[in-house]
Design goal:
This protein has 14 helices and twelve strands. The chain is of the alpha/beta class and about 350 residues long. β1, α1 and β2 form a beta-alpha-beta unit. The chain is globular and about 55 Å long. It is an enzyme of class 1 (oxidoreductase).
Length: about 350
């Protein structure tokens, strides 16, 4: 994207989160100067993992910004050559999804796009979208690509787990594309599937609550984590590091344009349960799922061919991403060491 030797200053929104913090780490490693936006730079608990990153002392600054506050991203974006818009509300239990999830997501992306237009220095915006913008519809297709969009009417009628998040990302991405075309902004959207892997934030990432629901379900409640099972019934997964490196790859590639699905593995809930049962014998993994008939599950694929044809290579598979996620969660005390009674939790290390 720039000339060799040029100072590369970029803004990462939502930098303290699951994706944002790992992306910030990778950008710092590659010599970028990062302006990291967070809601409260003074909250040491929420920014400690950022300020302790290698090169943070010289190449990282924290900026107070909030999706619900108009103009709050202007200063952070002014002077940047690129913006990675990762920030997004993810509250599946919100009592007021319209005002707490959907509105701030849509208003926030437009505010950031306006800030980019005003700055006149931003050469490319990379937006983190969601697989929920692509495949939420009544009759699933065997394969999805960047031309597909979810059915808003179906989502709002059925109100499946995470429906408000899907709606927010669909509306936000469409508004961003409209604004980008009207204002001649170079805009790229990345569509990740369920993101799994090791992480540096201290709390449990929302996507891992879903991804690890087969491990945590029986330990937490008799009925398991049934709402999350609907998301991984036809599961599509990508390693956090692959996703973040794809952000940088697409930001830097001169020929990148449009939408890009970022997905490395397609696997249904029964296949995932078998994998986890084999790799993590200390956990009580369910083997049957009410209302999900294995014989009726047809293969559904998210195609990353467009991203691969541009030259991007995925480095990690399912085993690596789940190993990284489980090990990190255990180290941080976010999941139990075992969910089977009578097991000596210190007896063996999970693979």
């Amino acid at each position: 994207m720039g000339a060799e030797g040029e100072v590369k200053t970029v803004c990462v929104t939502g930098a303290s989160g699951f994706i944002g913090s790992w992306l910030t780490m990778r950008l710092l490693e590659q010599g970028y100067t990062v302006r990291a936006t967070v809601r409260d730079p003074g909250d040491e608990r929420k920014v400690k993992h950022l300020v302790e990153l290698p090169n943070a002392n010289t190449h990282l600054t924290l900026w107070k910004s909030d999706l619900s506050v108009p103009g709050s991203f202007d200063d952070a974006i002014h002077g940047c050559s690129g913006v990675f818009h990762v920030a997004t509300p993810m509250d599946f239990d919100s009592p007021d999804p319209e005002n707490e999830v959907i509105k701030p997501t849509v208003d926030g992306v437009l505010d950031i796009m306006k800030a980019c237009a005003k700055a006149r220095t931003v050469r490319r915006i990379v937006f983190t979208s969601s697989a929920g913008t692509v495949d939420a519809e009544e009759h699933p297709k065997p394969i999805y690509d960047e031309n597909n969009w979810s059915d808003l009417e179906f989502i709002q009628r059925v109100k499946m787990t995470g429906w408000m998040y899907f709606v927010s990302k669909i509306l936000a991405e469409k508004e961003a594309w409209k604004f980008a075309k009207e204002n001649d902004l170079d805009f790229i959207s990345i569509i990740p599937t369920l993101v799994v892997g090791p992480f540096i934030m201290q709390s449990m990432p929302p996507s891992l609550i879903t991804a690890l629901s087969l491990i945590t379900g029986r330990a937490s409640k008799p009925t398991g984590n049934k709402p999350h099972y609907s998301i991984i019934e036809q599961g599509h997964f990508v390693h956090l590091d692959d996703l973040c490196m794809s952000h940088i790859f697409l930001f830097e590639h001169p020929n990148a344009e449009g939408r890009y699905i970022c997905n490395s593995d397609d696997i249904n809930i029964y296949e995932l349960a078998e994998l986890l049962e084999e790799k993590y014998p200390k956990y009580e993994i369910p083997s049957r799922f009410e209302g999900i008939d294995r014989g009726e599950l047809k293969k559904v694929k998210f195609s990353s061919e467009k991203l691969k044809k541009l030259g991007f290579e995925f480095k990690y598979g399912l085993e690596e991403m789940f190993r990284g996620a489980v090990d990190t969660c255990r180290e941080k005390g976010l999941i139990p060491l075992s969910s089977k009674k009578g097991k000596d939790e210190g007896e063996e290390k999970l693979l």
